[in-house]
Fold these 2 entries.
Entry 1:
Amino acid sequence: MTTTEWDASSLTRRFDEVRAHTEMLAAPLSPEDQTVQSMADVSPTKWHRAHVTWFFETFVLAENEHGFAPFQDKYWFLFNSYYEAVGPRFSRADRGVITRPGAHDVGVYRGNVDDRVRGLLAGLDSGTVEKLTPTIELGFHHEQQHQELLLMDIKHVLSMNPMRPVYAGAPDPHTDPDALGWVDVAGGLVEIGHDAGSFSFDNELPRHQTWLEPYRLADRLVTNAEWLEFMADGGYERSEFWLSDGWARVKAEGWQAPFYWEQLDGVWFEHTLHGTWPVNPGLPASHLSHYEADAYATWAGKRLPTEAEWEHGVVADGQAADDRVVGNLANTESFHPRAAQPGAGALRQVYGDCWEWTSSAYLAYPGFHPAEGAIGEYNGKFMSNQMVLRGGCALTPPGHARATYRNFFPAGSRWALSGVRLADGGAPSQPKASTA
Amino acid sequence: MTTTEWDASSLTRRFDEVRAHTEMLAAPLSPEDQTVQSMADVSPTKWHRAHVTWFFETFVLAENEHGFAPFQDKYWFLFNSYYEAVGPRFSRADRGVITRPGAHDVGVYRGNVDDRVRGLLAGLDSGTVEKLTPTIELGFHHEQQHQELLLMDIKHVLSMNPMRPVYAGAPDPHTDPDALGWVDVAGGLVEIGHDAGSFSFDNELPRHQTWLEPYRLADRLVTNAEWLEFMADGGYERSEFWLSDGWARVKAEGWQAPFYWEQLDGVWFEHTLHGTWPVNPGLPASHLSHYEADAYATWAGKRLPTEAEWEHGVVADGQAADDRVVGNLANTESFHPRAAQPGAGALRQVYGDCWEWTSSAYLAYPGFHPAEGAIGEYNGKFMSNQMVLRGGCALTPPGHARATYRNFFPAGSRWALSGVRLADGGAPSQPKASTA
Amino acid sequence: MTTTEWDASSLTRRFDEVRAHTEMLAAPLSPEDQTVQSMADVSPTKWHRAHVTWFFETFVLAENEHGFAPFQDKYWFLFNSYYEAVGPRFSRADRGVITRPGAHDVGVYRGNVDDRVRGLLAGLDSGTVEKLTPTIELGFHHEQQHQELLLMDIKHVLSMNPMRPVYAGAPDPHTDPDALGWVDVAGGLVEIGHDAGSFSFDNELPRHQTWLEPYRLADRLVTNAEWLEFMADGGYERSEFWLSDGWARVKAEGWQAPFYWEQLDGVWFEHTLHGTWPVNPGLPASHLSHYEADAYATWAGKRLPTEAEWEHGVVADGQAADDRVVGNLANTESFHPRAAQPGAGALRQVYGDCWEWTSSAYLAYPGFHPAEGAIGEYNGKFMSNQMVLRGGCALTPPGHARATYRNFFPAGSRWALSGVRLADGGAPSQPKASTA
Amino acid sequence: MTTTEWDASSLTRRFDEVRAHTEMLAAPLSPEDQTVQSMADVSPTKWHRAHVTWFFETFVLAENEHGFAPFQDKYWFLFNSYYEAVGPRFSRADRGVITRPGAHDVGVYRGNVDDRVRGLLAGLDSGTVEKLTPTIELGFHHEQQHQELLLMDIKHVLSMNPMRPVYAGAPDPHTDPDALGWVDVAGGLVEIGHDAGSFSFDNELPRHQTWLEPYRLADRLVTNAEWLEFMADGGYERSEFWLSDGWARVKAEGWQAPFYWEQLDGVWFEHTLHGTWPVNPGLPASHLSHYEADAYATWAGKRLPTEAEWEHGVVADGQAADDRVVGNLANTESFHPRAAQPGAGALRQVYGDCWEWTSSAYLAYPGFHPAEGAIGEYNGKFMSNQMVLRGGCALTPPGHARATYRNFFPAGSRWALSGVRLADGGAPSQPKASTA
């Protein structure tokens, strides 16, 4: 990983901000809401709150606090997510059977670790701060990832409930789609990947050369209105648009529309964190699997961008040059992607609406080395059977997204807040049966 | 079903008692505890609290309250357990994903229905009381069944938690087993089944003749000490003791001891509602499947009683003659079976310790007719692939057990509070491979 | 078990007959037909042919042949069905992956064991013959059971093939149902079970008393025409007719008609060993689960008989008095149940058409003791989660059926040649929701 | 796809060669052997023989033969593998339940189609030959792919059999591993992919530029001796070497050694088509999943090559320059990888021993377009959740391998004849936890 430069007091200030943001997101949720795991991929809210705390306790306090003892021996076991090197851990699929510690007890745990981290930072010399910075900063970004997941997960939990509960807020007014434009990119022998000077995960490294043929990127995401056209044209009934694995899922799981859509008396509704509302045509189509994204692109006679095309295109468009660290600054009010604002000649909806599926498998960059120790399990061991998504989404916390960020999910995942930006031109086109 | 005679005020008084008992049992449980469903057989505490309320709302208020409207339309759907005739219902296995209504909201629902039932009863003439009595009294016994299930279910929920949470109370002191005696029963052409004059479920009817060869019943339940002998003699490793289906489960699920036992540093511990404690040798072995009960009996050179043998034996022993309605009067303090009290010549531990597996399949009595309407789904449709248990257990609420009561579970069930009483003599012996 | 009296030459003659019958049944089947296992319940034809041979090798030759050595060491492992006491065995569900020994090799194995058994019998004194008779006679009946299974199993194998292959023969001409009559039976304290003097399995023992209320039995099986009425009246769509487990299967597996029925252009066809033909209205409805049999009886306002009612009724009707050993004498020509012959006042279609589901669970008779040794695994260990069927069917070999015979299958089984005879009167009626 | 130039008579001669090779491979297999499907991935031998015939019937005869009628209507359905555009097809996982047509009938089908294809070719003018060439040549390569699969599949079928059957031949004598050397490659902006002038599949196209850092390739495959070292060092017990998905498989399926290895009395044996023999240390380790290949590389401090590195390295090494079409010329005698021949400075075991796992996901090349029509389903729709393998193996038929060939399997597949060649240097290293 790479890191930013920090002093102890700015580290502490940032620590407080990040920790407070998690609690703000959990605040609208009852103890019951915070307990449930609605499917294996989902974790309970209170588990997220505890796990990010465990991360600081394990990787910061355990090795640096004088006379360290865990807050609770068994939390060590309960709140380890997947770090084999840290020891045995509680089964992921059973996180939802743990009723104690409850939501309140997790708050007590958070308070305890917060105090101890603050105490640790207060007493350090600058050399030790420098040594600890990479892990603490990783803890910030780790907690932000879980902030995003917390929202995706509680969205799923609430979606299972026929009472149609609301997390917060109200939906956007009806909007019609703005026209789709294209941004041309020249390609050539370009560089992608992070180049240090600020924080990055290890999987964004090293910065390296890659060859791109000329291509173009759509200037906004595919809209709900366009998705309805795809559906009306038999999108979910015609195998010729689909990857074989995708078609098998369509049949096995009866996909007929995006994940959170439901037809009531002939009208399509969408479950959102703001409640269940009629599908809004101007908003980005969201909660799509890679298979759906790819099938849509094939139907549209276009393709998905590679991750290199996405990153180079965004940087070339000037959206990462002077502001490498961006995010959804407004996400304390709205928890759903919004309509593209009118505009032309530049990419829109890059970071704050939907994670964008690429056509790239999630694999190591040339020369990649995972970090040393248990932290090395953070990214590398998941480089198998997943696809890269780029950008960010309406649930991404402020200051968390950047152009080089590599998000990843299995191709069949739908509960993440994902969407589609089309590409066209020299690079790979549709990897499946011709529609001719 | 058969019923007792009631007037409106005694019905109301009993209604209040039964309803209050449920809330007393739920009181030690947090909102998180009340939300979780740890396996498909288990229901969340707050679901139990709501479902028994739905039962009164559906079967008492809906047809008799002037200007009836459901408290909440969707509760109709959420809290129906299995009544096809009442309409569609929420998937049983997904009860644990419902976070709203929460534990508090369920309390509000209970209060509302309580008030309306009391109001209804206050305004009725005696003819209408008589007409409603069977359904209301069924509602009492239905709620009592769920009181027992609530405790069995929360025991399972808490057992999944490595924090080893305690529901309430403290375990009994170490006791050694009392000697086992036998009670002889003559048999002949006897009568079993309920004979009216007080409440019974439809499956206890009609009272009818059956032929029994002479037999004898053990005067107490099999103890933990005896179960340890069975284990030490290879009970879980030797196929010759087991029914074929049972042996398949032993292998598939790795059974090595009763359901809630766990070996720590060479010592067997048992999870109870009072916490996790070393196995107490004088207490009844409990949380056993029918397969284990049957294998134990084969190992011991004995057999399980038929349900007719059990019922006739208990009645002949004088334990149902003058007190047809019995139960675990003390179960507000202890939630675990207790050691048999010294004594001789009569059956011990009949109603208040463990439900006792019989060798009888759960089938209709000769001449059985299910009740009319949706209530007819209460018992009859489950007469398939289940075995009968008789008696009662430490979790059975006061006034709920009786000699003719037919409980039933699939042969592989282990989360119910079940135990073993041996039989011997003229009737069926071991239905599997000889141990010779 | 009980046995008939035999001398060595009549034993040898019978041995030759039984062994030849198996080969005659396998003769129309190609090596490919004989190899396939189309579901876990089904065994390949060549496995049946080898397993019954293994039975004689293991239980007759191994203990009695001078200088015994197995024909092939690994056959010992491959062709053991379920005898734990004999040692490890090949996984049941994987019988269909064994291509060698092939059909021809199995013939060689059969010939070898045949010669050795004949040689053994030729050299025995009469005392040893008497000692071996029970096992050899069990071997006859065991092989006959597999003759029946071989046909049920190959019927299933061929049914999976869209080429619609024919095993043999041609279907019966179209017939209309004969009128249904009823036979009254007085009941009382009756005896059932086998009473020695000829062969029986251990599960038919001991003969014992049981009490029966007066009842009546339908004089023929339910017909296809009647089943079509049940279907037309929503039989597979109305939960009120069904046991809860049965209804769950209807929904999970999409049952809409008997197992081997298929609708083509609005006409119902049935797969038979004679090919696929339009459903013949006068023939017995067949290949039904216990759940379907029970649902039909409920729909018809009747019930299934208990096994005691069936046996006592058949004997009282004079159909087992002078001819205890009966069977489908003509089953070398026809492999499908046939229409009831006109007639009145007596039970029809008792042994040669369809195994008849009863309402009795398969459990031990009072005083039952399994046979000693590995043979004791034959029946007893399966007394769990199965229902009793009585009579015999069109695939039952000559001389194999009798009034006391207890066949058994899980309630959801449909590939066996099963049908429905209704009962009415004093004994148990519908064990599920009222249809009122 | 790209094609070679052919005239009608050379096409016919090649057709005869390819078709005869399939029958030669099937010749040692009995009808029983040819019928069985031992897991969903495996197809029966007679299905392979029929399917490749169906391919010629469907794609060559149906559109070009005057008065075409299918040989058998239902073969159209039975022998379609995965072409959605051709119509419904028989379930892949159930291929093993089809006993008719049998092995002999499939031979008749083959003969019929052979005659008709020869007849068609005999009557064509050269323009039509040119038009048909791409499809006919694809048919050759398609049949060759199935020749390889036929052998991989029957190897699996026979491996399930405790009789330890032999397909053919005898194993190689014991050999010790030859020393491992390395071949350096300069990298830079290189070209990969097929460049026309001879046959290729569509997925090898288009030829395109890609950037490679300098790297080196092992000059031979990893040996059994080396694999035993990996095992001895806890290779299958230490999570730090494994991708997360791989580790989950290790635990779920109990992997402890390569797929076909079995330990008997402390000695490792390997199931081969030549029988079961002690593991031969000098031979390539084979039948490994991508997960195992990757874990081994991590353990060894090396990595797998990307597919671009593999292809460019092999071509740079001079092994594809003058002989683009290569293969296992001797595979009519040996069906197992052989020891690397001593030698230095050049790559060994490139085409005829084991398919070599790369670190590249199977995705579209930049600018890829699938072929038009149903043939377009050949490759493109499988570009998801698979990894690329390069080279060829001991089961690859003569003339089938080439440097640009992209084979692909899911990362967990083990029944294919796969092995490991290590890479090192500038490109991606271990994508998982550090072993430090």
Entry 2:
Amino acid sequence: MKAIIVKPPHPGVEITEINEADNYGKVKIRTLYNGICGTDREIVNGKLTFSNLPKGKNFLVLGHEAIGVVEESGYGFSQGDLVMPVNRRGCGVCRNCLIGRPDFCETGQFVEAGISGIDGFMREEWYDDPRYLVKIPKTLEDIGILAQPLADIEKSVEEIFNIQKRVPVWSCDDGTFNCKKALILGTGPIGILFTLVLRTMGLEVWITNRREPTEIEQTFIEETGTNYFNSSNGYDKLRESIGKFDLIIDATGADAGILNQVIPLLGRNGVLGLFGFPISGAFSMNFSKIQDAISANNVIVGLVNGQKPHFQQALVHLASWKTLYPKSSKLLITKTVSINEEKEILKVLREKEYGEIKVKIVWK
Amino acid sequence: MKAIIVKPPHPGVEITEINEADNYGKVKIRTLYNGICGTDREIVNGKLTFSNLPKGKNFLVLGHEAIGVVEESGYGFSQGDLVMPVNRRGCGVCRNCLIGRPDFCETGQFVEAGISGIDGFMREEWYDDPRYLVKIPKTLEDIGILAQPLADIEKSVEEIFNIQKRVPVWSCDDGTFNCKKALILGTGPIGILFTLVLRTMGLEVWITNRREPTEIEQTFIEETGTNYFNSSNGYDKLRESIGKFDLIIDATGADAGILNQVIPLLGRNGVLGLFGFPISGAFSMNFSKIQDAISANNVIVGLVNGQKPHFQQALVHLASWKTLYPKSSKLLITKTVSINEEKEILKVLREKEYGEIKVKIVWK
Amino acid sequence: MKAIIVKPPHPGVEITEINEADNYGKVKIRTLYNGICGTDREIVNGKLTFSNLPKGKNFLVLGHEAIGVVEESGYGFSQGDLVMPVNRRGCGVCRNCLIGRPDFCETGQFVEAGISGIDGFMREEWYDDPRYLVKIPKTLEDIGILAQPLADIEKSVEEIFNIQKRVPVWSCDDGTFNCKKALILGTGPIGILFTLVLRTMGLEVWITNRREPTEIEQTFIEETGTNYFNSSNGYDKLRESIGKFDLIIDATGADAGILNQVIPLLGRNGVLGLFGFPISGAFSMNFSKIQDAISANNVIVGLVNGQKPHFQQALVHLASWKTLYPKSSKLLITKTVSINEEKEILKVLREKEYGEIKVKIVWK
Amino acid sequence: MKAIIVKPPHPGVEITEINEADNYGKVKIRTLYNGICGTDREIVNGKLTFSNLPKGKNFLVLGHEAIGVVEESGYGFSQGDLVMPVNRRGCGVCRNCLIGRPDFCETGQFVEAGISGIDGFMREEWYDDPRYLVKIPKTLEDIGILAQPLADIEKSVEEIFNIQKRVPVWSCDDGTFNCKKALILGTGPIGILFTLVLRTMGLEVWITNRREPTEIEQTFIEETGTNYFNSSNGYDKLRESIGKFDLIIDATGADAGILNQVIPLLGRNGVLGLFGFPISGAFSMNFSKIQDAISANNVIVGLVNGQKPHFQQALVHLASWKTLYPKSSKLLITKTVSINEEKEILKVLREKEYGEIKVKIVWK
């Protein structure tokens, strides 16, 4: 069958015919769509150090974002059901993996389809275990592919809210979170999705980049009632005008030095969430800043990987946004490419386009 | 202005001109819609024992479900914003009311607009405090009125899930709640809304009534993947075929004797949620059934009143259902009556119609 | 070896030589002490319906409360270490049993040493798995046997406090639980231990029985600052003088009818904890009382079985009571009998003595 | 009356007669004991930048650790009761201060007796509000003064365990925390007290300093079953022999650079707790270490200030240690000085003695 394959740690990607690939169960699924994300591109460009070939194989099928259609009824599914695979799969021995939560795997021996250890889903079909399949409503066929990256954000937000239960009262005078201020660093897909989730939950959100917002960003901002801050001259003016933030999320995946700039904006009982993998720089707190962080009950937390419950929550949010943020929800898929347009596929797998939120590959 | 008034504890209702009514703040709101629920009818029929007149007054403006439009910008709102009032308002002294959670008022000295102690919203306009106002997205103008009854259900489900954190692991093998079985007693609006919320969260749901489902119920059941059980001959067959339930919700608001019938279906670590006010009968557990409840770590919990965070969650669910359950979401408003059709208004305020889910009064 | 055996469901008990008994692991333990509780007596008197013989055997070694001494170093223990076995052991398949919490077993297929399915510890020695062994500090050799019954209470209190996290603020104005009022029904060992735990946590406690307190009860009451109420004429006077309670615990193990008497004393957001197995009567709530329970956010919860973490917490409390309540801690063991006094052993296994809190069998 | 006063930000301390000092309520208390801690010495040496005089005054009564005796019955106390004041007092306006939890004050406008804004307790007597008074059992008169510093640790441990509820299962196979590994940096009083609390809770503990343990440390280590690691050559050997830790606590209050050394020892789902105020150096994570922290779900949290519930928990632990760790509990007070030995008092207020855990001033 046709597949998109890579050979980590070597750079490169090809669309080719393969004879066999990993399968994980008995539900036969024909691929309809794949999503492309930054992680795919890092593998293609030979930069993702933890990407590995499946054991004993000399290539890896790429792709951890997929929607497929069930080919034969059984195992709790009906022919024609749309499904999305959960990409990280547990180590099989630790307590959290045993109860379906390899996002908190204790051994680190999990695998990730299309990334490390097992084949991904950029191929015509695969067989899977119902345990790892999430049903996609037909009415979300258009934007459902976003449930995979969004699941990571749902898990992150859930974890932050769990952490904040350490504060006796972290809600506002009216019992909501409407008075809580969140600062999102970065206007890429991750920053946009964090903004949508937090606005849906009622928080006030400021999103920042080192430039004026693009037209598409402007639409998101206006429709969701988000604030924009151009950080090209640093964050002093933001601090002066708005004060401190209850939540700061790094969604840049760029230089870690940005954390040094924003840590002074973290308020009492506040949380700094590290989501995007920084690729250069360092975050440094001198003794005086550490004293401040202690006095202010601050938390810094690493945020990673959503699991099946978070995929399900992502679908509820995607469904709600069609009503709550109809314009924004239509802007989330910025490009669709047919699997037959090989040259274009290879191009989008190598580099991110300007203004891209999500690129979708269509298998038909 | 025109208003619908009652004089508890006396039965009766009239549409009349009034000179003044209670106001709660500075945001001027013109009423667009009211919803009617069973509580309104109990007041109208003189049966709600805890309904009281506002202090020193001889009538009460009815209505605790409302959507209005903000008439003048200010206080965080813009002219034209749609808003819904939160009906229960705190005692002003206890810890939970001080932090916006009078649903857990410690003194019991709260008031409820249109029910006890302060005027409701079946009137042309009122002034309110931003603290008690929930913004309604324009895209939910059609079914947003359901956010009030749905808020009570959101709070109930939140409370049950909070209670279940007593169980070290209450999720399924895949980290979701997809394996958990809920039994909903009653197919009225409350039963339907509980079903929609729990299905959205992934639980398996059985809904019951002592007859075959109506056509409209059949639509809900099919679209949401809910199971139906006709309990006219008791619950033995359900127990035999399905086994025990993790969650049983009484949404009948009828005879308490139903609890005696269903308690044997409550499984280990299970919760029986009491939502609907029973109006006759008794629930009795002999020593042997109490032994079983102890051995099985069972919880019985009284569920009441959603607050502002639950109204907001209700709106997210209503928004999502337009996409997830499009047919069902169109069936939720079963009747719309203009405030000018006085005879019809008085009729729907006195008695529930066959198949009614929500009746909406339109003020224009 | 010598052992105390029973043959459920038949009444009777004998001290006899046995050739073999169940073992559970590789740690060799010589029995030093056993405790006797009401459950043992119900088995001896043929009244505990769920007591079963080990599979394929015709007797059951009695005893679920024991302290032994490790005979050979290894498996994390040193020769001479004092250890106590955890009596309930998991089903081996459900999620909660897999993570060491068979108190919330989902299948009900757990076993309980000395009660149902596997041999207990009223025998000269046994072999066990470290997983089920709790180290007993030498300084608690005297009263450590109470850690088993106390573990059940620690779990119950932990569960109640977990449940109360449903209430946004359940603590007092000073952040403590000092303003919370608990009513303990019954002055037996369970009632006394609940009182000690809740007083240690700072709650105000009222303990009741249908008579004036005994001299020994008077000592507990005075030393711990507990209030006593003689309920021989019902609870009206208690309600009039004190008002409602945040927590009511049934520790009587008697007639369930007492619950009908005390439910009107349960306050807003309050919890009724069912601990003692009632042996007659019924608890009945008519529709009006159910309405009250709903309006007041009440919870009724069945409380059962402590596990290893609760045994450890029990030891910390027992240790603290030697300092906090030195007189009371000396009154907890009301009788000590040598295993060689066979007649006396058989007598204490058949009937409870007046004023008994804990009877201890000494194996030396 | 006699008092020990300071004049921040100026260095210096004197024992003098004063005419008046701040009072906080109606309960008259005569001082029996004060404790001295590092914060006192920083004020005395003019190094605590956030120490402030009470408004409009030119001196500050030092002392935030005290036990006094109630002089007149009333307000819930009896003459002769021993009490300890809670030192941090709320801002009066934020939600957490209103419910008795100024440890999570949102405004930062709290005051701390003897440190900033209001007078402390190194004086003959003061008047206080019952809300801020913790009863001290007579049997803890000897070591009860440790409840103040210990309260900060109780709060820290409670907060860490609350944060870890983000992990679906953070307990061990037997439901306990016995398999969890904690690394405590520093063998001063804070390190010792953290060790005692965590050992009481069952965790495995390693405590480190850059030298061999002192004799007194050796006693603590042996009695509590703690492990010792000499970190004079770094932490590589610890990592090789033991692996990673679930919890690392910085209790050094020294150079922040130690964090750079230990962060590689933090395991998956692990927490780095910052307790001691570092006084030099910096903690730096380059992009690669941040990637690791994200992948491993790590949390870094600032830990500060215990409130009344934590003082109460501290007393329970102190009481239990008399039984669990009798030798260690006798070593906690390393020096006692009479208020009349002025020269000695001034000396201990200026510099820490070798091997000091807690120095107690006796007012009689």
